[in-house]
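Inverse folding, one chain.
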């Protein structure tokens, strides 16, 4: 058990201020990670917009390193606590914030960070926002072009609009007549998309039928933050990448009743040229082979009769007996500027002090991290909050 007070410093002295270039109103905290690295997390006001900066002091060489930082940064507040968890991530608790924005993780040695370090050959850190409670697993729907994935997803979204949200992918292909930018796809250029991929903004991407397609981390987070279950319509290569990522999902492969029927549907849709249809059909052969993999897909559905296939899809999502009632709690906890934190195993006890009693009925609570899931490049989910021994959220 250790204790780290919430604090902010008006005058930063010595090396830290020089290296971080913090102005006199910067806020900074330091955390020792392993015996030879100190992480300095500082809030600066760059062009009057407060932002978080990270620097690492390598104590073996006595040199400062500026890491490449992935993920959406938290908006700084005037006081925050930081506590090291299991040598791989730092929990940062923002003061004067409510529980939907106060828990953030700075990952310093997770699998994602190690992967990016090896890729880039430099120090890397990654922010991941902490989310209270369990989110239902996203649904990955895959299958050859023309099999009916989009049709099935539209039916599901129409019947359950408040339950599901579509992950809007990016693509370099040209929009079809009925397609809207930001609704069906984010239509973009290859050079822009390649830069964003390089900057770690994508959960997965693939070259599909000659164009680049990809799921941005934001596309998935936006749906989950809206309290909805995310549906991804992606090809088999993309499904494989998501399987290998930290996103836990349900993987469903949609099969046509026959190859001839697939070809008929693709032609009848009338959205592709003959050359594109031929390319999609060639790729479909390989995808149908890979779709049989029980390692990759949890379920296979044959889309012969549309209504039957849709009923089967609902059944496996547990929706055939009517709409599930959301168990989302409306309770929000406020962490004041001045608070203290202490770690007991996988629980962080946050004491808000007596002066905050009037603001919040809860002046001390425990943040349980024993069931956390996910993490960079997405949100860290599964946080639970208990007040004085009673579970109140999650
Ligand atoms: N069970 C079905 N029987 C007959 N036609 C179907 C069936 N399901 C879908 N279709 C039709 O097949 C065509 C292709 O469907 P859809 O666009 O949903 O395929 P998709 O898998 O999303 O393709 P892509 O991967 O290219 O986006 C559409 O015209 C759709 O109306
Ligand atoms: N790997 C990914 N595949 C994607 C994504 N978005 C769509 N797709 C797949 O591309 C093909 C073709 O789609 P179309 O709209 O041009 O007909 C289809 O199989 C989709 O599932 C993505 O983000 N990543």
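Residues assigned per position:
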């Amino acid at each position: 058990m250790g204790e780290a007070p919430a604090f902010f410093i008006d005058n930063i002295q010595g090396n830290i201020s020089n290296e971080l270039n913090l102005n006199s109103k910067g806020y900074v905290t330091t955390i020792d990670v392993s015996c030879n690295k100190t992480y300095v997390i500082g809030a600066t006001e760059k062009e009057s917009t407060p932002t978080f900066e990270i620097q690492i002091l390598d104590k073996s060489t006595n040199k400062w390193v500026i890491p490449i930082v992935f993920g959406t940064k938290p908006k700084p507040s005037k006081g925050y606590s930081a506590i090291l968890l299991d040598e791989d991530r730092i929990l940062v608790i923002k003061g004067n914030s409510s529980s939907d924005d106060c828990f953030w993780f700075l990952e310093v040695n997770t699998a994602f960070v190690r992967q990016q370090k090896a890729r880039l050959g430099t120090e890397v850190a990654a922010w991941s926002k902490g989310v209270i409670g369990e989110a239902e697993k996203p649904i990955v729907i895959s299958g050859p072009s023309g099999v009916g994935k989009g049709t099935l997803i539209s039916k599901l979204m129409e019947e359950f609009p408040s339950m599901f949200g579509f992950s809007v992918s990016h693509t370099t292909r040209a929009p079809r007549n009925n397609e809207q930018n930001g609704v069906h796809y984010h239509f973009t250029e290859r050079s822009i998309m390649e830069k964003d991929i390089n900057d770690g903004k994508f959960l997965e991407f693939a070259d599909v039928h000659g164009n680049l397609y990809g799921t941005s981390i934001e596309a998935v987070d936006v749906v989950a933050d809206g309290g909805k279950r995310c549906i991804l319509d992606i090809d088999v290569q993309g499904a494989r990448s998501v399987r290998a990522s930290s996103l836990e999902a349900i993987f469903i492969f949609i099969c046509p009743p026959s190859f001839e029927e697939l070809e008929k549907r693709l032609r009848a849709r009338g959205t592709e040229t003959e050359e594109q249809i031929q390319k999609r059909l060639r790729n479909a052969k390989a995808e149908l082979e890979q779709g049989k993999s029980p390692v990759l897909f949890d379920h296979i559905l044959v889309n012969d009769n549309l209504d039957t296939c849709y009923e089967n899809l609902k059944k496996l999502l547990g929706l055939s007996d009517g709409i599930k009632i959301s168990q989302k709690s409306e309770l929000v906890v406020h962490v004041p500027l001045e608070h203290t934190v202490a770690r007991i195993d996988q629980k962080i006890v946050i004491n808000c002090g007596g002066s905050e009693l009037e603001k919040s009925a809860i002046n001390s609570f425990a943040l349980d991290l024993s069931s956390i899931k996910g993490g960079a490049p997405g949100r860290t989910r599964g946080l639970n909050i208990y007040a004085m021994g009673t579970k109140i959220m999650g």
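The pocket of LQESDW3C (ligand 2) is lined by residues 145, 149, 169, 173, 204, 206, 208-209, 213-215, 233-235, 237-238 (CB under 6 Å). The first strand starts at residue 3 and ends at 5.
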